[in-house]
Amino acid sequence: MSEEEGQLEARLEEQEEFEPSEEFVSQANVTDEGIYEEFEEDWPGCWEGAADLLDWYEGYDEVLDDSNPPFYKWFTDGKLNVSDNCLDRHLEERGDEVAIEWVGEPTDEENRTFTYEELHREVNEFAAALRDLGVEEDDVVTMYMPMVPELPVAMLACARIGAPHSVVFAGFSAEALATRMNAADSEFLVTCDGYYRRGDALDHLEKANEGLDGVDHDVEATVVVDRLGDDGHGHDLRDGQHDYAELVADHEGAEVEPVHRDAEDMLFLMYTSGTTGKPKGVKHTTAGYLAWAAWTSQAVLDIKPDDTYWCSADIGWITGHSYIVYGPLALGTTSVMYEGTPDYPERDRLWEIVEEYEVDQLYTAPTAIRAFMKWGKQFPEEHDLSSLRLLGTVGEPINPRAWKWYYQHIGNEECPVVDTWWQTETGGMMVTTLPGIKKMKPGSAGPPLPGLDVRIVDTKGEEVEPGRAGYLTVNKPWPGMLRTLYQNDERFVNEYWAEYSDTDSDDPEDWVYFPEDGAKIDEDGYITVLGRVDDVINVSGHRLGTMEIESAIVGVEGVAEAAVVGGDHEMKGEAVYAYVILEDGYEGDDDMRERIVGGVEDSIGPIARPEAVVFTPELPKTRSGKIMRRLLEQIANDEELGDTTTLRNPEIVEDIQTKVERED
Ligand code: ATP
Ligand code: MG
């Protein structure tokens, strides 16, 4: 590192607040600070503006019907169609503009570009095909697909004919597919022969077929996309299985009138990843969800029709639903879709794509950012990233060091970073800065979006003092909220409302949504999400958030990533176990161990001192990149390990186990 660079790093390390650049502010979609007050005063009327981003066949009566909490209804009796809003209405002005820019993993393969007109055509043809296969309005169509363009086509085709979709992440097991098809009584499946991952042509259809064998009712039809061509695994299609391309060709030129859906009709089901137990069928509806996805895309991601926008999540997660497909396409922008991993063929693949397509906004996850940081800045430095205007992150808390690295090495200190807190259940972003208005504080997501009543409370529901850890609650409904858990209203109330609501009351004021995350708030109203409520360690009666300890560890030079869990301890109740990944070029020796322990003592106090520091090349992660703390806890306690099938890297578990045994 040169002296100049060293000074820059040192300055950034100290700096706790960052202002958006004037250049960004001067072009931002939302720049009037008054929006917060305005929305508060005109609530729930403030959401009319979000509804105005959509085209309606029939206008709605009421913005909000809160007569039966927590079963809220938004934009009552309005009629609209999501596929019309994402496609048809753009045709006249933007038909030739690119809607989806698809990049496959193999570098020698041509990318596939769909203009709005081309996407519209294929969605119509596939919608007609689905109808011919017997799909009727309100039938749930399951999609078990990797990142191929036929996935958004299928989603929009379903939306067109009013058939809700349920997308199951392609990395999930056959069993996960069967469970979800059974839970939703889904009789239709759209899947794929395979896809490329780090150069290998993976067989996906075998898994899909195995899943189908576990479905406990008749499956009427399965559609199979041929992604791999000659690299395919030679499966013959079974009875009732159809080739996607043939179906589309058979319906060439077909036009399907978009069904007029009621505002509250179901758009899709999404089973949450299940990092914490049995999957929940989160139900999202048509108008509220789309308005929320579109409004937040515009206000937070600053999307404009002429942008090339890229969210590197997988469409198998809610992030991909709201911020690859629905939000961006509702706004008529260009949405980039990438099939592969960031390190294939080299660790600069993302930066190569940003450069080639002149990406304006990049929305990714802290786990990816920490990997970039570990790999080193030389990879982004090889590329011209000057097209970038805004950066975003989602999925888990981001530690200040990773935030600053992203800000400096990807954004060149010119792009605001939006750290967006939200969940599958919220439909879209909830807590984050508005990039054209608010200063940023690394490590803190920011204030709640305008019109949202988010509070940090104690176990009794009383607001806690700034700086104190508490529980995050949402005290007023919002348009993008889940409406229920599919066919299970009771679990919906119990999971999300019972904790802080008077469940006998009809007064919406008595109903409080509890997302099960811990958080703290500062004097400016900025919220730092500390992670799931169950991620708390109780050391000698002190409740310590794992996130705070992890932050302290990741603040130590040379540490790339850390996960902290509680291990049983005779004296203390629980003791802090830290699993640590080092940056390339650092050794996991005693000196490093001491610096880590010292770092925790300095920033939190001796009470949080890790009992064990275990160096590992990887952490067990779910396919969505979330650390499986439950497993690390079981390892620390030498317990039998639970299900590891949803892990991206199951092989690492044994490796860590051996290391922990050696520590003991
Ligand atoms: P499951 O609910 O099935 O266990 P999940 O919670 O991992 O799965 P998601 O809905 O994708 O499924 O994740 C939402 C959670 O991710 C939030 O509740 C929060 O814990 C975490 N999260 C998301 N974004 C942020 C963020 N910007 N900062 C901190 N935490 C975040
Ligand atoms: Mg969750």
Question: Which range does the strand content fall in?
Answer: 15-25%
Present as ligands are: adenosine-5'-triphosphate, magnesium ion
Structural class: alpha/beta
**Order of adjacent strands in the largest pleated sheet:** 12-11-8-6-7-14-15-23
Radius of gyration: 24 Å
Number of strands: 30
The shape is globular
- Counting DSSP H or I runs of 4 or more residues, the number of helices is 21
Helix share, percent? 25-40%
* Average pLDDT level: 93
Distance between the first and last residues' Cα: 38 Å
**Which regions contain 5 or more consecutive residues with pLDDT less than 50?**
none
Question: What profile does the largest beta sheet have?
Answer: 8 strands, mixed
In short:
With 664 residues, the chain is an alpha/beta fold. The strands form 8 sheets. The chain has an 8-stranded mixed sheet, with helices on both faces.
Walk me through the topology.
Blueprint: H1 3-14, H2 22-27, H3 35-41, H4 48-51, E1 64-65, E2 73-74, E3 79-80, H5 82-94, E4 98-103, E5 112-115, H6 116-132, E6 141-145, H7 150-161, E7 165-169, H8 174-183, E8 188-192, E9 194-197, E10 200-203, H9 205-213, E11 221-225, E12 241-243, H10 244-250, E13 261-262, E14 266-271, E15 281-285, H11 287-299, E16 308-311, H12 318-330, E17 334-338, H13 349-357, E18 361-364, H14 366-375, H15 378-381, E19 390-394, H16 400-410, E20 417-420, E21 454-457, E22 470-474, E23 484-485, H17 489-496, E24 517-521, E25 527-532, E26 536-539, E27 542-545, H18 546-554, E28 559-569, E29 573-582, H19 590-603, E30 612-615, H20 629-636, H21 651-663
Parallel strand pairs: 4-17, 6-7, 6-8, 7-14, 8-11, 11-12, 16-17, 16-18, 18-19, 19-20, 29-30
Antiparallel strand pairs: 1-2, 3-13, 4-5, 9-10, 14-15, 15-23, 21-22, 22-24, 24-25, 26-27, 28-29
